[in-house]
Amino acid sequence: MRTARLLGSLAIPGTAAAAAEARHYLRAVLDPGRHAIDEVTLLASELVTNAVVHTASGRGGTIKVSVMECPGGILVEVADEGGHTAPVLRQADDFDLNGRGLFLVDTLAADWGHQEEGCGRTTWFLVACGHT
To answer: Distance between CA atoms of 116 and 90, rounded to whole angstroms?
Structure first.
């Protein structure tokens, strides 16, 4: 049985540029011939944006993005410095400008979840890939 293999991790400031930095990093680390790069970068961008907007990471803290290759595909973890509420999947109204990030994660990822860890939280997702 194969286990997860860390492809890399990146610590970034919780600023408006964090999602773009995460996308750029993941595109550099992942192999387009083996990994679902578009899906992985989209979903990671959503989770990083949530960390900036809804957690202490967006108020001067940091966010850590880790990416692993595992038997089921690509696993990405986004660790933040915690917030007042846990991530909640909700259905956005047609005219809402926000609130679709976790819906995208829930729709496109093979699995996802979150875990509280002391003063922080890790939200993760798995994207299935054909050749991992």
So the answer is: 20
**Contact, 51 vs 78, CB < 8 A?**
yes
Question: For the chain, how many structural domains are there in total?
Answer: 1
Residue 80's DSSP bridge partners are 121
Angle at 121 between CA 117 and CA 124, to 5 degrees: 115
Whole-model pTM: value is: 0.88
CATH of the domain at 95: 3.30.565.10
Domain extent, residue 97, equals: 5-128
* Cβ 108 vs Cβ 39: under 8 Å: yes
34-76 pLDDT per residue, tens: 889 999 999 999 999 999 999 999 999 999 999 999 988 999 9
d(CA 123, CA 67): 12
Dmax (CA) for the chain in angstroms is: 47
